[in-house]
Amino acid sequence: AQSVTQLGSHVSVSEGALVLLRCNYSSSVPPYLFWYVQYPNQGLQLLLKYTSAATLVKGINGFEAEFKKSETSFHLTKPSAHMSDAAEYFCAVTEGFGNEKLTFGTGTRLTIIP
Amino acid sequence: DTGVSQDPRHKITKRGQNVTFRCDPISEHNRLYWYRQTLGQGPEFLTYFQNEAQLEKSRLLSDRFSAERPKGSFSTLEIQRTEQGDSAMYLCASSRRSEGDTQYFGPGTRLTVL
């Protein structure tokens, strides 16, 4: 069984500061990993995904994430936070190989301080 | 690409009533997924279809829940005899049939059971 742990349900950073959102996964097989963003009263939008190609994945809006198998981590970063980054962020994993359902973490709410 | 659409966006019902939600996937996507998201949690998988075949159902999907995708295009999710615990956001997503492919989410239907 696979699971996802997001450390920190709430993260606050100052505008212009580094954003770091943590995600650790457990999976019995090499996973596919995703970060989604959710704005209030909206569905989820894909930020980026890892599918066993390059371990450093670049996404939209300046976000990137690094897959570290030894640490079973897939942390999301952005060098300089913008006010528009305030949202809920979800890490998710799917095992692939015909098992495509996403297993999500509980989410991290990102607040940007002006 | 018009995206995944869901109807209605909001539904308020009284306990014991039946409700039905509709999801229209992206046109060339043959996989369709339903998830449920409660307040403060990440989405949880309910069921998914490949074309018209329902391939997997979560234990979360009690006997009161039924999902269909009759012609492999749109899907409906029906909840019979609603309970207050059914109050949640119901999210639909679609993807192409390929491993690790991105699931694109609709805006969701927010159900409130009084």
Structural descriptors:
heterodimer, A: 114 residues, mainly beta, six-stranded mixed sheet, four-stranded antiparallel sheet, B: 114 residues, seven-stranded mixed sheet, 11 strands, 49% strand
**Overall residue-averaged pLDDT value of chain B:** 92
Mean pLDDT of chain A: 90
* Separation, N- and C-terminal Cα atoms of chain B: 37 Å
Assign an overall shape of chain B.
globular
Radius of gyration of CA atoms of chain A, rounded to a whole number = 14 Å
Distance linking N and C termini of chain A:
41 Å
The secondary-structure class of chain A comes to: mainly beta
- In the predicted model, the low-confidence regions of chain B spanning at least 5 consecutive residues are none
What overall geometry of chain A do the principal axes of the alpha carbons give?
A: globular
The H/E string of chain B reads EEEEEEEEEEE
Give the tally of β-strands of chain B: 11
Written as H for each helix and E for each strand, in order along the chain, the element string of chain A is EEEEEEEEEEEE
> How large is the count of helical segments of chain B?
0
Q: Percent of residues of chain A in beta strands?
A: over 45%
Assembly category? heterodimer
Instruction: Name the poorly predicted regions of chain A.
Output: none
Q: Name the helicity range of chain B.
A: under 10%
Can you walk me through this structure?
The complex is a heterodimer of chains A (114) and B (114). Chain A is globular, with a radius of gyration of 14 Å. In chain A, 38% of the residues are buried. Chain A has strands at residues 3-5, 10-14, 19-21, 24-26, 32-38, 44-50, 56-58, 64-68, 73-78, 87-94, 103-104, 108-113. In chain A, the strands form three sheets. In chain A, strands 2, 5, 6, 10, 11 and 12 form a six-stranded mixed β-sheet that branches. Chain A has a four-stranded antiparallel β-sheet with strand order 3-9-8-7, with no helix packed on it. In chain A, strands 1-4 form a two-stranded antiparallel ribbon. By secondary structure, chain A is an all-beta fold. Chain B is mostly beta strands. In chain B, 0% of the residues lie in helices and 49% in strands. Chain B contains no helices and eleven strands. In chain B, strands 2, 4, 5, 6, 9, 10 and 11 form a seven-stranded mixed β-sheet that branches. Chain B is globular. The termini of chain B are far apart. The mean pLDDT of chain B is 92.
